[in-house]
Amino acid sequence: MATSRKRSHDDREPVLSMSHDHHVAIIEMFNGGSHRQLVDLLRTLIPSSSLLTLSDKKWHWRARCGALQLLPQLLDLPPSSTLFLTAVGSLPEVLALCPNLQSAKKVLYFHENQLAYPTQSEQNRDFQYGYNQVLSALAADMVLFNSRYNLESFVDRVDAFLNKMPDCKPKGIAEKIRKKSEVLYFPVEFPLKLSRDVSRDNSELHIVWPHRWEHDKNPDDLFASFQSLVDSGLKFKVSVLGKTYQDVPEVFEKFRSTNCTLIAQWGPLDTREEYLAHLQTCHVVVSTALHEFYGVAMLEGVWAGCLPLCPNRLSYPEIYPRECLFNTPAQLTKQLRQLCKNPEIARRRWEGVMEKMDIQQYSWERLKSRYADVLGLGNL
What angle, rounded to 10 degrees, do the helices at 344-356 and 329-341 form? Predict the structure, then answer.
């Protein structure tokens, strides 16, 4: 269901003064998870902006038909100075359906890109999704990516992707997009009152996996590693958080049914406050992802005091020190085995990671002035 809503001003943010004719339109066609978090933060900068959203259901239909589904709201939009659209929807379709947006500064934000999305084979890749993103990038005035990996993995694939056309193949498209592209990290709203000094139970290692329950997050490697620890007779407990969907990979239930005594939390928690409090009880936050362009949940885990362990691929080498990365599932298992034997090591290693990471560079507090500038509001 489409929504267009305004919310009251958040007292944590200053109200920006601007001319009355400066109007911002924000469009999010998959309004859930990190997409919703970003929209909500942007609205604190300019509460009077127009916000058009579609719920985070049936992603494939949103990507194909989102602009048409929003048609009544698009037609009601006033003339806007800035349009902020995420790359789920088609920018050319939005502009065709809404003349009032055609003269606006058009900002396209990539949470992910379809050219680097993992598929079993290139033949299985739906050309239309990537094509929509290429056209949207060409139509935009500014193209923003939430990580350097996201930018490079998209732009580097554009020309080869378009070369699939049987004839009349366009040239130089990647370079056109690169010239107006830049990295603007997703702004994580780290809780200022979170205490990392909460006493953890060091009698056994507590491992958290806070990701979507889908194949692209590679739960097979995660549970294989856990099972190896079980077979070695090591003591540990696990919290498997993250959002669940209708089609959950079988490996989840297989592990749960045979290892229920290891489980501290199974499934998402009811509130963000409960989620953050639970992270504070964990020693290690783990990813085994095959698909990740940023990784909000991993950063939240680190902020809460968890040692990050991530695959040496995707966006992770850009964000985390080398000692947090593993090249193979066997390396992950080896690190977890060592930590199981002495959970207190995780805390000391986390302290070393925090000395090397400037985690604040990913925070809303640090990034909000840049987003204000992108929206045409001037620096805070």
Answer: 120
The residues, any chain, with a CB within 8 Å of residue 87's CB and separated by 6 or more, are 108, 109, 110, 111, 112, 113, 133, 136, 137
Looking at this protein, which amino acid is placed at residue 240? V
Cβ(299)–Cβ(188) below 8 Å = yes
Share of the chain above pLDDT 70, in %: 91
Q: Are 288 and 330 in contact (CB under 8 A)?
A: no
Give the separation between CA 235 and CA 245, rounded to whole angstroms: 30
Angle at 306 between CA 305 and CA 308, to 5 degrees: 135
Give the C-alpha separation, 283 to 208, whole Å. 8
Name residues whose C-beta falls within 8 Å of residue 135's C-beta, 6 or more positions apart in sequence: 90, 91, 92
> Each residue of 60-88: pLDDT tens digit?
999 999 999 999 999 999 999 999 999 99
Taking a C-beta distance cutoff of 8 angstroms, is the pair 91, 67 a contact? no
Beta carbons within 10 angstroms of residue 6's beta carbon? 11
User: What is the number of alpha carbons within 13 Å of residue 260 lying toward its C-beta?
Assistant: 3
Residue pair 144/86 in contact (Cβ under 8 Å)? The answer is: no
Tokens of 272: 């963000």
* Contact (Cβ atoms closer than 8 angstroms) between residue 25 and residue 77: yes
d(CA 48, CA 166): 47
Phi and psi dihedrals of 291, rounded to 5? -140, 110
Neighbours of 96 (CB within 10 A): 14
Structure token pair of residue 20: 């009355």
